[in-house]
UniProtKB/TrEMBL annotation:
One term of GO molecular function: ATP hydrolysis activity
Keyword Disulfide bond on entry: no
Family: Belongs to the ABC transporter superfamily.
Keywords in alphabetical order: ATP-binding, Cell membrane, Membrane, Nucleotide-binding, Transport
Protein's organism: Massilia horti
Protein known as: ABC transporter ATP-binding protein
One Pfam family here: ABC_tran
Entries under InterPro entries matching the protein: AAA+_ATPase, ABC_transporter-like_ATP-bd, ABC_transporter-like_CS, P-loop_NTPase
Residue ranges occupied by any ABC transporter domain in the UniProt entry: 3-233
Length: 297
């Protein structure tokens, strides 16, 4: 299914503009919505999940008017919110079974089949009789996906699902999402660049309520391919480089400070051309160096 978002805007009562004319087209497959904290991702996710009203704009899921036909959307939607809480004293099986009843799966035999199947798909079958309070963060997120998949949704929205997962759990969670994304529309919001780099065929970068860039990750990387320059600097040199160059990121590498700068041509001063990554695209976009070069939505 295709999700078409046009000029979606939302200003909260306190005056914060959380969404500023957001337009995106989200095809079948995994779509990554990448942005820093406060960018407006959760506001967008909750609006698409029919849990919150926007001020203006339109959203269509194929022919369904998402902002108007909420019941219709809910039938096709699976949602894993950012703050997905579980009841710690019940088991995974009991809670998923309970959610299945709420989703309308009242026939016992069929329900058991579906619940068992989802627990297997999310690799939780072996631990289905353990209490959710004893689950690790990764297990809890996989349980969150299991409940989101009840009712065989065509649109799945997951809001910052990998925050706080250790590397092994993240890989496991990525594999699960990528299986699901094979034939559904999956919208993944995250502030972690590698979530998008690893998983998503299409993506957008959102910052301060606005879509800065959207497209295929590799294309966006190609757009900055010869414009990213790197060098090591000392801590003392750093401010000077920040003053004279468009430094988009600084990070420690084996105890030394590596800076990446954005420049149309060789900036000199000991910089060498770097192999551009999605991280460079992201930092260039949110530091305002690159917005005009990418494919605008
Ligand atoms: P993200 O999910 O990208 O972190 P959010 O959608 O949660 O972004 O928030 C976008 C902006 O809206 C932030 O500045 C946030 O503080 C503000 N915001 C979010 N929810 C509310 C609310 N209920 N009332 C007022 N401001 C809010």
């Amino acid at each position: 299914m295709e999700l078409r978002i046009r000029n979606l805007s939302k200003t909260y009562a306190n005056g914060v503009v959380a969404l500023d004319k957001v337009s995106l087209t989200i095809p079948t497959g995994m779509f990554g919505l990448l942005g820093p904290n406060g960018a407006g991702k959760s506001t967008l996710m909750r609006t698409l999940a029919t849990l919150q009203e926007c001020d203006s704009g339109s959203v269509f899921l194929d022919d369904i008017d998402v902002l108007d036909e909420k019941d219709e959307v809910r039938r096709l939607l699976g949602y894993l919110p950012q703050d997905f809480g579980v009841y710690p004293k019940v088991t995974a099986y009991e809670l998923l079974d309970h959610f299945a009843v709420l989703k309308g799966l009242t026939a016992k035999g069929r329900r058991r089949e579906v619940v068992d199947g989802l627990l297997q798909q999310t690799n939780l079958f072996e631990v289905r009789h353990q209490k959710l309070g004893a689950f690790s963060g990764g297990m809890r997120q996989r349980f969150g996906i299991a409940q989101a998949l009840l009712g065989d949704p065509q649109l799945i929205i997951v809001d910052e699902p990998t925050a706080g997962l250790d590397p092994q759990e993240r890989v496991r969670f990525h594999n699960l999402l990528s299986d699901i994304g094979a034939d559904k529309t999956v919208l993944l919001s995250t502030h972690i660049v590698s979530d998008v780099a690893d998983l998503c065929a299409n993506m957008a970068i959102i910052h301060k309520g606005q879509v800065l860039l959207s497209g295929e990750p590799q294309k966006l990387i190609d757009d900055v391919a010869d414009k990213i320059w790197a060098r090591f600097v000392t801590k003392q040199e750093l401010p000077l480089f920040q003053q004279h160059h468009r430094v988009i990121s600084t990070r420690l590498l084996m105890g030394r400070t590596l800076i990446h700068a954005y420049a149309e041509g060789d900036p000199g001063h000991g910089f060498e051309e770097a192999l551009a990554t999605l991280e460079d695209v992201y930092f260039a976009a949110i530091t305002g160096r690159h917005a005009a070069h990418g494919e605008l939505p």
